[in-house]
Amino acid sequence: MIMIGFDMMAVLLLTELHVPQKVFLCRAKHDGSFILRIVPPTLLAAEKEEAKAVLTLFLKKQGLSNAVAVRTINKSDAFVDHLVARLHSVHKSRYLVGRELTTLEIRDALIPYLETVLDEYGPIMVDVVENFPDPPVIEKLEEVVKQPVVENSVASVSPPIPTTVDAKKLKALARVSDILPTGKLPSHIVYLVELGMELEAIREVIRKFPAFAYYSLEGKIKPVVEFLLDLGVPKQDIPTILSKRPQLCGISLTDNLIPTMTFLEELGVDKKQWAKVIYRFPPLLTYSRQKLQSTVDFLYGMGLSAENVSKVLTRCPNIISYSVEEKLRPTAEYFRSLDVDVAPLLYRAPQTFGLSIEGNLKPVTKFFLERGYSMEDVATMIQRNGALYTFSLPDNMMPKWEFFLTMVYPKSELVKFPQYFGYSLEERIKPRYEIMTKCGVKLLLNQMLSLSEEDFHKLLKKKMEKNT
User: Fold this and answer.
1) Which long-range contacts does 352-359 make (Cβ < 8 Å, 24+ apart)?
2) Is there a contact between 450 and 466 (Cβ–Cβ < 8 Å)?
3) How far is the C-alpha of 401 from the C-alpha of 417, rounded, in Å?
4) Are the C-beta atoms of residues 350 and 319 closer than 8 Å to each other?
5) Helices (H), 142-221
């Protein structure tokens, strides 16, 4: 044990003390001295791997391919060390008592931080990560050519585009703005604009995925667009799909897209719903068959029938993006701990399984327990309204709870009808309650909110006549 007369808690890298590859954590004693604990090198190495995995997953969710994400990680040792240092700072109390962090705790600590980095740096986040701690130099394209609209051409009038000194990215972005000697934009840009895609939207795609600027019109972009149109995707939806997943245009139709669709149809996706499925979640067709199969195997393992698996994949295709071992299975175990039947919940509200256990699920459970409901009540509410956990506590549930307390209903009414939280407070709940009160009658919460406008007034009239 080493005693140091610092007057504040700190996390020290042992390299500063000339002891390599270990970390000291300091804890204050009552006499003002500090105790240093050593994080074992094996634990430190494991934490670095966990941090790399979290960073890789985060970058891929921003549209980077797996290869690009891996290359970025290989250049980002300093940033990974920075992430590990943040773990020690956020969870210092855990280390001081000698408890290792779980994978979920590591992710919940790092992902919000990575999101703040993304918010601050946007399209240059990769450069920030690779050059940490020295920020990349930000430059602007010195001039964007301005041309009036001429016949069969598109004007390119827009402000300069912030970008980095990365030559490839500059060159890619320039392809969106450069006017050819003919006075026109490149054909693939004109084609995208004619589809309804804004120039700024095209630039944003290229900032995130520069390779898109080099896709040929006839060889890549047009065949995929026509394929989507043939599936029944409305023309106005194409820009949204390409913005969400430009990599679709880089995938072979015959070797990848069509075989993947056939594979998904065999797993249960309704072929008649492809237009809606792709619009909801364009990345679906870019996942490996192994990843697709693992998710389907999980759904079957939870007790869903083949028909229900089909409906889940069709209604909520983004469930494929959730990691089975890091997201789906832990979430299922959490709901089982509440004595909830997981299969019906997965079928009715699969989007709930994409939520954070610590950030979303546990706070909602705590919300109801603190207001006097039993765990059995909470389980019943979840079974009756699986989407309950998708609502925001401060923006949705708390205001509606406060108004509920002003009404004439007992708290047990929410157990019977937890769908209450899914109705608009200002447009549905308050107006109908006011009308009901003025009429001098009382309806069940379910009757007051779920009936159509016509049936609601018919029931009010019937109740009023009965009371006279």
Assistant:
1) 352/386, 352/387, 352/389, 352/390, 353/319, 353/322, 353/327, 353/328, 354/318, 354/319, 354/321, 354/322, 354/327, 355/331, 355/389, 355/390, 356/108, 357/104, 357/330, 357/331, 358/104, 358/105, 358/108, 359/108
2) no
3) 13
4) yes
5) 167-177, 187-194, 199-208
Mapped onto helix, strand or coil, the DSSP state of residue 138 is strand
Backbone phi, psi, residue 423, to 5°: -95, 150
Q: Is 392 exposed, middle or buried (0-12, 13-18, 19+ CB in 10 A)?
A: exposed
pLDDT > 50? residue 101 = yes
Please name the amino acid found at residue 324.
Answer: V
pLDDT tens-digit map of 159-211: 333 333 355 566 666 666 655 555 567 788 888 889 899 888 888 888 888 88
Say whether the peptide bond before residue 133 is cis (omega within 30 degrees of 0): yes
What predicted TM-score, i.e. pTM, was given to this entire model?
A: 0.59
- Name the nearest CA neighbour of 134 among 174, 165, 168: 165
Rg from Cα positions in the chain: 28
Burial 174-196 (b: 16+ CB within 10 A, else e): bbbbebeeeebbbebbebbbeee
End-to-end CA distance of the chain: 84
Distance CA 177, CA 132 (A): 31
Identify the bridge partners of residue 36 per DSSP, sorted by sequence position: 26
Q: How far apart are CA 331 and CA 357, in angstroms?
A: 7
Between CA 56 and CA 41 the distance in angstroms is: 22
Helix, strand, or coil (residue 175): helix
Domain boundaries, the chain: 40-136
Question: Closest Cα partner for 346 from 286, 301, 304?
Answer: 304
